[in-house]
């Protein structure tokens, strides 16, 4: 794998750069400045950094108070705790009160690997997207992480962003592409089937597209970096133009990207949809790649499902 | 506002809140009556606020962490002119913005509260911003005593002391009753003052239905430099209405027509005697 820079480091570097001009940007950590790669920010901008200790409810409440007073808080805390322990603060103090808090769930999905289900966050998209007014996002690679972080600084309102722990392979050549919150990126045009992925599974969908191309199948690939607000038009177009959809996500098969896509498809243009993700069980121990392979979140598996949908 | 005027105001607010609860047939009567003197002291005397400019940047902030006792707050905000007094009669009606908890769609309300254990953390964030940005405002956070069982209160207590937020004031409406009965039977809190002191707060214990004692405690802030203040306000749940005082089911009991009449008669008499006292000077 080429890239060795994890997305969390990109978040820090981007905020360091923007904080030069924007003194309202404030990073909060829950004893997580190391794991969030935020130590350089804490050092460079001590007045724009708040250590809260291991207290995830408190970190969100304090961030809401800071936001109410004009700061632009970025909470960097493990996704497994941030999206569960503090969900009521997210619902009430951020979404309901309408505070401008960015929640960055680090080490998300199954990236803590063998640490077990306590440290996995594969229900976060489901719970976050059910909260009115909360944007929900996952970047596909380091370039998108940069674009997303920049966009979030300028975005007024609450948002939950989940990033993984380890470096991920690039899906973009550079950060120079059109990124808009709420707009899917068409990574590949195609006519026979659409693969919709988010976060680190975008790379897998692109690999599947290459395998399908080898056997004469034209697959469209959508990077749904924003789960909410969802780009419904891109989904409807995919249903109308390709007739089949496969969703791929590092999340429970319940309530995440697949569910969000299916909600749109069944109501606006019903076509077959297959949902690939983590099944309804404590995920098996292992590296992300091993866990993905075990559950069929792989290019081979997507190819098989696509051929089956097409009737080959 | 002087002491007599404050006490008159508190009686008037109690009458108003009983009327809106009676009309809506819902509300947290006991808690609103217990916190009325605390809110009256803050809103009519202590806090720097401007009803014509609710977003004044250096205004003092009030966070009702015990959001359910909102009726006294609605009556005070209306009385001060944050919104028209007639709107009080929409309280809890279909589509109203005057719901059963603080709602920041209403001028004068900072944050939506109601889930217990949230307010102090928010207040810590506000107080920290005030310090770091040199805005100079104070933050007053009113908590219930039953609320003290929420672990998140103590996360925020730790942070308030850690960041030396002497512009932060926590207030515990210590009426010793919660919905199921005595706080000490439901989940023992005592010695609650020692708990707060051990968390690094400057603790002041006052009669929480005595506006003079409350004003003195609030105006002394920061009494200990570098420490947040906790005002342990010993109150009587249902205060001001003899037959509601210290009766657990008045937590959210709605007065009947007859109970309302009796309560208003008692409060009118109290108001009259305060007026006479005031005139004598």
Automatic annotation (TrEMBL), chain A:
Any Pfam family hit: Transketolase_C
Keywords: Thiamine pyrophosphate
Limits of the Transketolase-like pyrimidine-binding domain: 5-171
Swiss-Prot/TrEMBL cofactor(s): thiamine diphosphate
CDD domains in the record: TPP_PYR_DXS_TK_like (cd07033)
Matches recorded under InterPro entries: PDH/Transketolase, THDP-binding, Transketo_C/PFOR_II, Transketolase-like_Pyr-bd, Transketolase_C
Residue spans crossing the bilayer: none
Similarity comment: Belongs to the transketolase family.
Protein name (Swiss-Prot/TrEMBL): Transketolase family protein
Source species of the chain: Cohnella zeiphila
UniProtKB/TrEMBL annotation, chain B:
One Pfam family here: Transketolase_N
The keyword Lipoprotein appears for this protein: no
Entry-linked Gene3D superfamilies: 3.40.50.970
Annotated Transketolase N-terminal domain residues: 11-253
Key words of the record: Thiamine pyrophosphate
Protein's organism: Cohnella zeiphila
SUPFAM superfamilies noted in UniProt: Thiamin diphosphate-binding fold (THDP-binding)
Family: Belongs to the transketolase family.
Cofactor: thiamine diphosphate
Official protein name in the record: Transketolase
Keyword Transferase: no
InterPro entries registered for this protein in UniProt: THDP-binding, Transketolase_N
